Amino acid sequence: MTSxxxxxxxxxxVCGGEEWQQVISFGDVPLANGFLEGAxxxxxxxxxxxxxxxxxxxxxxxxxxxxxxxxxYRTYSYVTSDSETMARHMRTVVRLCSEGAxxxxxDLVVELGSNTGDQLLAFQEVGARVLGVDPARNLTAIxxxxxxxxxxxxxxxxxxxxxxxxxxxxxxxxxxxVFAHIDDVADVLAGVRALLADDGLFxxxxxxxxxxxxxLAFDTIYHEHLSYFLISTLDTxxxxxxxxxxxxxxxxxHGGSVLVSAGLAEGTRTTGxxxxxxxxxxxxxxxxxxxxxxxxxxxxxxxxDGLRELVRGLVAGGSRVAGYGASAKGTxxxxxxxxxxxxxxxxxxxxxxxxxxxxxxxxxxxxxxEDVERxxxxxxxxxxxxxxxxxxxxxxxxxxxxxxVVPVPEPTVRSRAVSAS
Length: 421
Known about the structure:
Elements: E1 6-8, E2 20-30, H1 39-42, E3 47-55, E4 61-63, E5 65-67, H2 69-73, H3 84-101, E6 108-112, H4 118-124, E7 129-133, H5 137-145, E8 150-151, H6 157-167, E9 170-176, H7 185-195, E10 196-207, H8 209-214, E11 227-228, H9 231-240, E12 243-251, E13 257-264, H10 273-284, H11 290-316, E14 321-324, H12 328-337, E15 347-348, E16 366-367, E17 378-381, H13 387-393, H14 395-399, E18 403-406, E19 412-415, H15 416-420
Parallel strand pairs: 6-7, 6-9, 7-8, 9-10, 14-15, 14-17, 15-16, 17-18
Antiparallel strand pairs: 1-5, 2-3, 3-4, 4-11, 10-13, 12-13, 18-19
Helix pairs in contact: 3-4, 6-7
Protein name: SAM-dependent methyltransferase
Organism: Streptomyces uncialis
GO biological process, one term: antibiotic biosynthetic process
């Protein structure tokens, strides 16, 4: 670990509290999207502490270590999935946001962390004027080539002021699976207030801490995800920064997410019933107490032990195993569970930016699917959030006797033989 590249949290970024519950530590882990170019770069690989804490003041789940974002995002290997599941989800986001913000033709939609522009292309199709903001210049160049104007910067008060001066105020400011990546939430929310139209909506999609705990989605914990939110925590945060939570939708994507919308506190939008209902559920389910997180940590350790035993048992029995989907959550899962080259031969992924590289920490070669010369007996399904779509896509592999190991929430084998038994 290089101390110059990491800052340790001393106060909660939501409420300023300094009393923490230690939830779980995974030790030092490499960056989830830090794919390596070869053995030489592997020798220089850095790892950073991966530890989760819970603020006893507002129950924000947070990482203790904040890695310098320049290491994480300037050249970024994560590209928005082109799966049918994600395409369908993006259309759902357009519908929900268009209805909630009451978008009209020509209204400005600004997306934070816009990646290669897929979501904004979907908004263009319904007549919106769009603008992306994303610091990953390798991805913003792709977005520009696709016709999505993009500012290659971090979003904050300065960038928001420049955008407002050039493009006007936004009817919708959207951040899909980016808000959890932000350390200085105060500056981002100041930017939202500067850019948002009086009757506009600020809408974020984030992993839901309730689903993280209930569904044991611990492999979504990695250095890019600094925060894991309850609705009650977000409500506290928005209120401290001149915003009012107005609506929420629960979504199945990425192991369980929420689409949360807020308006200006001085505006006319009011808090909806779904917000109040989820806040009440979080309290009644014990999410504001230590006990839930103690149980979560124990279940994580049990699942890691079970997955390790299952995979090593397959290998000991003569089966060949590989990874399916070189996802960020896959990096976390393999490193947390102590699975690597002794158990897995390679990892396959459709993302060109990852192919020909080595997975972080475990150093498995990443192959394009068409470059796999001989299929393994089993794939460890690292992209488990797309399990059903992948099973349909890989029906020939299953028909030929292959199987998938699904790791979360409980390690299981999916194959034709298991289904028939």
